[in-house]
Amino acid sequence: MNQEVVKVILECKKDIWKNQELFELVEEYFENSLQTLDFCTALEKCLKRARDSQLLILVALQQFEEETEMGGSRYTRTLGELKNFKAIGDPFTEEFFQIFQSVYRQQIQMLEKLQLRKTKLDKKLKYIHAWRKVSSIIFVATFAAVLICSVVAAAMAAPPVAAALAAASSIPVGSMGKWIDSLWKNYENALRGQKELCH
């Protein structure tokens, strides 16, 4: 299991638990990791059997050399070791290939799901980035409109009234713009964190 992935998952666990689709993806990742461990165990068994088979061949070769030196013509000990080798059979069993195919299919499915999720997150990030710009433009335009209105009011009415109107309306508009931008930024950061999980 990849330690970096586990670290990111643990750092983002609150976000993962809130998002059902992401939670299911993480659950599937852990299940796939367990099955990959089962595959590694089966591979280890097959490799040990292959090593044992190799040792039988080496013993048979040694027996052959000894029997040749002794002038033997039947090579019975050599044939006995070769029969032992044949009896062991293929070190890679049918069970191994079934586990391999299962793990392979699951890894492909997981990759497809991660790619789909990444594509969705990329679209959302573009959407959020665009809306963040639009909301900033709207608040800049609103702020400019309030400023222009206060200048017009100053030209038409008493200067103290216009100054008070401009000061009273410009502060909330600017603060609200920053607040909305921070909401968009937080949402964008949350999506970037989810996207990190898909890598």
Automatic annotation (TrEMBL):
PANTHER family in alphabetical order: UPF0496 PROTEIN 1, UPF0496 PROTEIN 3-RELATED
Location within or outside the cell: Membrane
Keywords, sorted A to Z: Membrane, Transmembrane, Transmembrane helix
Transmembrane segments: 134-155
Native source species: Prunus armeniaca
Protein name: Uncharacterized protein
Superkingdom field: Eukaryota
Family statement: Belongs to the UPF0496 family.
Pfam families membership: DUF677 (PF05055)
One Gene Ontology term, aspect cellular component: membrane
Classification via InterPro entries: DUF677
Keyword Membrane: yes
Keyword Membrane: yes
